[in-house]
Amino acid sequence: MFMTGKTAKNTVEFSEFEKYENEIVTIKGTIHNIRMMSDFAFIILRTARETVQCVYAESFSDYRLAEDVKEECAAKITGKVVAGETRDGSKRYELQIHNIELLSHPAEIPPVVITKKQVNCDLSTKLDYRPVTLRNPKERAIFKLQEGIQRGFREFLSKEGFTEIHSPKINFAGAEGGTNVFKLDYFGKQVYLAQSPQLYKQAMVAVYERVFEIAPVFRAEHHDTSRHLNEYISMDLEMGFIESFEDIMEMETGLLKYIMQLLKTEYKNEVELLHVDIPEITEIPVLKFMEAKEILMKKFKYQPTDMKDFDPAEEEMLGKYAKKQFNSDFIFITHYPSKKRPFYTMDDPEDPEYTLSFDLLFRGLEITSGGQRVHDYNAQVAKMEKLGMNPEEFATYLMLHKYGAPPHGGLGLGLERLTMHLLGAKNVREATMFPRDINRVSP
Ligand code: AMO
After folding, report:
1. Is residue 210 a contact partner of residue 238, using CB atoms and an 8 Å limit?
2. Three-state SS at 301
């Protein structure tokens, strides 16, 4: 026997129906819904990205609907492609059934109704039965859309000369500091799950100049919040030879424009099904951290409790401000206080209390952190010592600086957070296929 690499199929896709009008074709999928009428039946077939209306009537052929044709059976349906009309008068193809070949039978009926427009149960139940509830067309559209975001990220950066990398997730140290690092026993030695690809993406700048990674990262978040996950997909980029940290913000603006355009064109069905309000991006306003604090105090009469960072309420207010003042769904906040940014962040030479860093807020939620990094060896060692870190523990990271690194910077964009606010969802878990949080590691 030989494999030839040919992947010819003997079934057609719904997208090809137009060219088969009035012809007999076979299509495969899962029987999503059966609606029995008095002398005919609608059988909705769920294919990879569509639902196809198939109609059964005795007049169409000699085939008679068998008893075991049930919802969630995998099937091949043969029939005649006919053009029908939807409620709004547009053309929609359907299939007049001539035969149904069942390929599998479910052992039980689904525990949650998935045939309605949306899955009507609480979030926790929805997540408990995720392998089943994700079959619902609206539910699965979320993650198709999410695929589009990642695809846009990858396509845009590839065109901009970035190399895709994969950094290790079992690491000698946490890259972001703080207490939210997962410890792991590694053959008797303590290691850590990657909080981000930070140390590795920086190392690779001296190799490929521009790199990106889309991969899971791990944060031991001890609180159950609507915006934190213990495992999330971080879309990271790092670029060398920057003139300033603003180059990274320009890159992200271009990147987001590209992603939104891709969603509008190639993910139109999902955008419509989910009623996604795709943001129009022409330019993104930029505010300095302290300017933003002043706006909060003066315009919103808000008295911040922490002058080193923003709380969620402040981010929300800044989101509203960006919309009202600049008609923008996004706003960059720059120059975060040095005390709140990780050790690799470059301080602003003009005012070292602050950093050459930024966050990007999308509709009032932080979706990105980024900035310029320290690239000089002595400066990085000095900064680590100032923060009470032991540079020797980071000797492999410091090879980058010791043996020469170009000026560089980058960013990390949280995929689930971006998806969440595109959907207008209240909880990040809605935008996470199989979320991991303090109470959930299954399914
Ligand atoms: P930071 O820690 O701010 O920066 O994370 C970057 C982005 O990741 C998302 N994010 C999260 N999403 C879900 N659950 C969480 N627990 C969570 N934590 C963070 C947010 C956030 O803006 N190394 C830097 C990035 C860089 O400077 O390149 C970093 O990881 O959207």
Report:
1. yes
2. coil
Tokens of 147: 């695929």
List, for residues 77-115, the tens digit of each pLDDT value.
999 999 988 888 888 999 999 999 999 999 999 999 999
Do 62 and 143 fall within a single domain? no
The CA distance from 204 to 142, in Å, is 32
pLDDT tens digits for range 195-246: 999 999 999 999 999 999 999 999 999 999 999 999 999 999 999 999 999 9
Ligand 1 cavity residues, CB under 6 Å: 176, 196, 198, 219, 221, 228-229, 232, 234, 236, 366-371, 410-412, 414, 416-417, 428
Range of the domain at 316: 137-431
- Tally of structural domains, the chain: 2
Output Rg (C-alpha) for the chain, integer angstroms. 26
Paired strand residues for 359: 333, 369
Measured CA to CA, the distance from residue 213 to residue 153 in angstroms comes to 10
Q: Is 363 helix (H, G, I), strand (E, B) or coil?
A: coil
Do 298 and 385 belong together in one domain?
Answer: yes
Q: Are residues 104 and 195 in the same domain?
A: no
DSSP, collapsed to helix, strand or coil, labels residue 73 as coil
Contact indicator for 74, 30 with CB cutoff of 8 Å: yes
Ligand 1 atom at minimum distance from 219 CA: 16
Is residue 207 a contact partner of residue 407, using CB atoms and an 8 Å limit?
A: no
Which residue has 């149960």 as its token pair?
A: 121
Residue 180: Cβ-neighbour burial (10 angstroms; 0-12, 13-18, 19+): middle
- Strand order of the β-sheet with 189-193 is 170-171, 189-193, 183-186
Q: Which of 200, 223, 234 to mutate to test the pocket of ligand 1 (most atoms within 8 A of CB)?
A: 234
Q: What are phi and psi of 339, to 5 degrees?
A: -60, -25
Q: Which helix (H) or strand (E) holds 41?
A: strand 40-46
Residue at 122 is within a domain: no
DSSP single-letter state for residue 280: P
Best CA proximity match to 204, nearest among 245, 150, 177, 167: 167
- What size, in residues, is the chain? 443
Among the atoms of ligand 1, which is closest to the Cα of residue 414?
A: 31
pTM for the model stands at: 0.97
In terms of domains, do 269 and 392 share one?
A: yes
DSSP string, 304-355: -S-TTS--HHHHHHHHHHHHHHH--SEEEEE--BGGGS-TTBPEETTEEEEE
In angstroms, the CA 264 to CA 299 distance is 35
Report which secondary-structure segment, H or E, holds 159: helix 137-159
- Here the tokens at position 268 are 């139109």
Answer whether 182's CB lies under 8 Å from 194's CB. no
